[in-house]
Amino acid sequence: MDMASTLQLPARVEALSGLSAIPPEYVRPADERADLGDAFDVLARDDTGTAPRIPVVDISPFLLRADNEDRVVEAVRAAAADWGVMHIAGHGIPAEVMDRLRAAGAAFFALPIHAKEAYANDPAAGRLQGYGSRLAANASGQREWEDYLFHLVHPDALAEHALWPAHPPGYVAATREFGRRIRELASALLAILSAGLLGPGRGDALEKELTGAEGDDLRLQLKINYYPRCPQPELAVGVEAHTDVSALSFVLHNGVPGLQVRHAGRWVTARDEPGTIIVHVGDALEILSNGRYTSVLHRGLVNRDAVRVSWVVFCEPPPDAVLLRPLPDLVTPDHAPRFTPRTFRQHLDRKLFNKAAAACIGHDEEQHQQNEE
């Protein structure tokens, strides 16, 4: 064993941001590096007037039951089918609620590392919630350039409140209020997406499938991603390319670019659309829609001179109470089911933890890999 492999690595990526070169365990494989770079530089290259743009959809007519709500349904349906991601405007969440959330999360990550360690998680012991850093648990064996804080925010009765930071003092109130608002927005978007699949009068279909016969509530998991300055952004990623396991994911950020989504064979860098919330379609919704909605492949770039922070709320079905499978109306002789039934826990175990889950293994695997390429 060589001497380098015996050295203890810094526990947090934040501690590496002052180096002149990144450690080798953060260097991405050669086949990824051609498309990497400082997110500001990549966005500037894209900003030529010809690069595609992630759709922006104003859903306020639907929320207000205005005459043109059908246009909202079609715009959301088209974005979910073609892109799997969109910027949502007119979502009804006040700017001050989002600003308080951003301020609370930024203040937590401004604390010294030793203060944040009071909330440290332990993935090796199965404790995923809390403060942590993404260690190598992927095909490449490389690490990602991020620290994070992760915990459940809804339903409140299931939350482990001891993992919610006591500092800054406003963290709990700001996070709880934002979680409540996102839960309402999730119902509205699921109604829009249901109508887009099944037509008027069927707006409750997706949420019913996601909550089950007993009406078990959706789970909302918050992950605050902290991407420190990176001396070699052309070699690293904040988060490697993946799809979300959730039904929907809601994203706020601090205005620093970094999100990229895969569309039509190329990486498209998200622009800042002030006042909007980014919404991703996740695996659970792709399964229920029998592939009509796309679980978007996406990743995070990093920056040489700017810290990026994003707040992601994953909207998930209860882990064992429902069976994820295509809606019966979407399975016909001409449209066979593309996904085998599985609980959310089975899907999560197979995808994130590489556990054997025989009930999840089926003919959808090859097709889903093709969808991600």
UniProtKB/TrEMBL annotation:
Pfam families to which the protein is assigned, alphabetical: 2OG-FeII_Oxy, DIOX_N
Documented EC number(s): 1.14.20.4
Q: Which reaction does it catalyse?
A: a (2R,3S,4S)-leucoanthocyanidin + 2-oxoglutarate + O2 = a 4-H-anthocyanidin with a 3-hydroxy group + succinate + CO2 + 2 H2O
Q: Which cofactor does the UniProt annotation name?
A: L-ascorbate
Read off the Gene3D superfamilies from this record: B-lactam Antibiotic, Isopenicillin N Synthase, Chain (2.60.120.330)
Q: Which InterPro entries match?
A: DIOX_N (IPR026992), IPNS-like_FE2OG_OXY (IPR044861), IPNS-like_sf (IPR027443), Iron_ascorbate_oxido_reductase (IPR050231), Oxoglu/Fe-dep_dioxygenase_dom (IPR005123)
Is Iron among the key words of this record? Answer: yes
Keyword set includes DNA damage:
no
Q: Which GO terms describe its molecular function?
A: L-ascorbic acid binding; leucocyanidin oxygenase activity; metal ion binding
Q: Which GO terms describe its biological process?
A: flavonoid biosynthetic process; pigment biosynthetic process
Residues forming the Fe2OG dioxygenase domain are 218-317
Q: Which PROSITE patterns match?
A: FE2OG_OXY
Source domain of life: Eukaryota
Which UniProt keyword terms apply here?
A: Dioxygenase, Flavonoid biosynthesis, Iron, Metal-binding, Oxidoreductase, Vitamin C
**Pathway assigned in UniProt:** Pigment biosynthesis; anthocyanin biosynthesis
What protein family does this chain belong to? Belongs to the iron/ascorbate-dependent oxidoreductase family.
Q: What is this protein called?
A: anthocyanidin synthase
Species of origin reads Panicum virgatum
